[in-house]
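Weekend entry, working from home. Most of the wet-lab plans are on hold until the incubator is repaired, so I used the time to fold the two sequences that have been sitting in the queue since the last round of cloning. Logging both here for the record. First:
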Amino acid sequence: MTRFATWLGKNADAFIALVLAVTVAVLGVGVTLPHEDEITNSAILAVVGLLATSVLRDRGRRLPVEAEVRDTLRSSTATLEELSGKLTHIEAFEGVLSDTKRALDETTVVRVISGAQVAQVLQEARRDTDRWFFKGGTGTYIRAKTLPETVAAARRERRTLLFRLEILDPTHLEVCEAYARHRRSVSDGPDATGEPWTLERTRKEAYATILAACWHKQRFGMLDIDIGLARTMTTLRYDLSASRVVVTRDDPRGEALVVDSTKFYYSWVSAELLTSLDQARRVPVEQARLAPLDDEPTVEEVRKLFEVIGIDLASGYTDRDVIEIIRKALRAKDPYE
């Protein structure tokens, strides 16, 4: 009974409307009651009143719901605004992280490799490169590996090759003696090639690099090679290819530095090497065509070559000395082997 009373309290308007509807229906099937018109009109008015009551009741129920929805929307809007602010902070934080990562990447601009890795790194640098800039002592490794291998690759692929070399001036006795003295101070015995460093060896190594450059130029027309002769020595050697720059010292067993071409320091070194080359004494390699060289140059051909390019051989050099320069130029020993 209690359950029915509770139900009736919640649905009284609908229940009354249902009773009135049944009553009107009974009247409609012919049941005769006194004052039928008045009863019908009253019933209709009662139904309309109940409908109005139901509408008002539903509206009354909706008002709290709408207010709750509005409050929820306001709360959601505030939450979204707060979330938007947090997203802005997150984006700013991501920007800071990106900048930090870039800064960290640039701090690792230089890689350090062991002496045992230098030959392999230089070999990788030679692969598919279209340029090579060198600054160092006499260019022994240039003659032994870099120049012949890069020229062979460029010839095979039918492309141009840009070469820029800065080595010691073999006609400047003071700088050659200073270099030889420096090399002896590092190791007073023979190096990996089996020879000790002396003034005459330093001069002959530099002469040999000039001869090798002219010899390769005559055999490969797409080789654009330029040589500068320095009158100040450096203890470092720079080898720059299209992919990286490798900085080594005179000791093949020592550690080396590697800078990839994607790093900003690569362009710095490139600009430095070109600027330094511009200040060196230039060798007119293009004049070498006036002194053709055989596949195995003769002493006379080599003497003629140095004459036409304006580089004086030492006055006391015998044919044996010139033959030694030819050997060093075309069959140089790899200092890393």
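Second, folded right after the first finished:
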Amino acid sequence: MEQDNLHDERELLRRVSAGDETAFTVLFNTYYPLLSTHVFRITRSLPETEEIIQDVFFKIWMSRETLLIVEQFKPYLWVMAKNRALNALKKMARERDNQATWLRSEFRSEADTPDPQLIYHSLIDEAIGKLPPQQRKVFLLSRRERLKQAEIATQMGITVSTVKKYIQLATEFISEYIKERYHIYLPPVLLAAVFF
């Protein structure tokens, strides 16, 4: 960082530590874009990223008096955000495990617990049912009927690029639906077997 920028940052931190809300807004706006990219690389979740960043800046504001002893603010901020993101990942993993345990107990019969693949396929079918009609039709023709994109385009009277886009959107929706709604990790091998 150049000397002028370093001086400006120290002045900004001094003002924040004194309770200057305008300076805090400048600090937030300066670091928010890069910090959100940094945190998203760890969490891969926009809602989780937003929550972590809000939490980090809330903590900075609440302990603003200590900013005067921070030598290098950017590394300090990055480490704080990284630690929060890793804690969030651990929490999400625990929730996934709890959800998987709950699902196993829900699907458990007197005889035995069904194969996890049956549960995954059931969840995927549920997600497919939530797709918009055109996307669902294109997705099923591609993945279940095994038609080529050009064949789907001809059959439905749409362009090949539209077919590709529908398949991409459907695949993303199904993956997100399963992850967000059930907090279940769908192994790539199983995902590939279903989607491709």
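Plan for Monday: verify the second prediction. Residues 3-95 form a domain with the Rna Polymerase Sigma Factor; Chain: A fold (CATH 1.10.1740.10).
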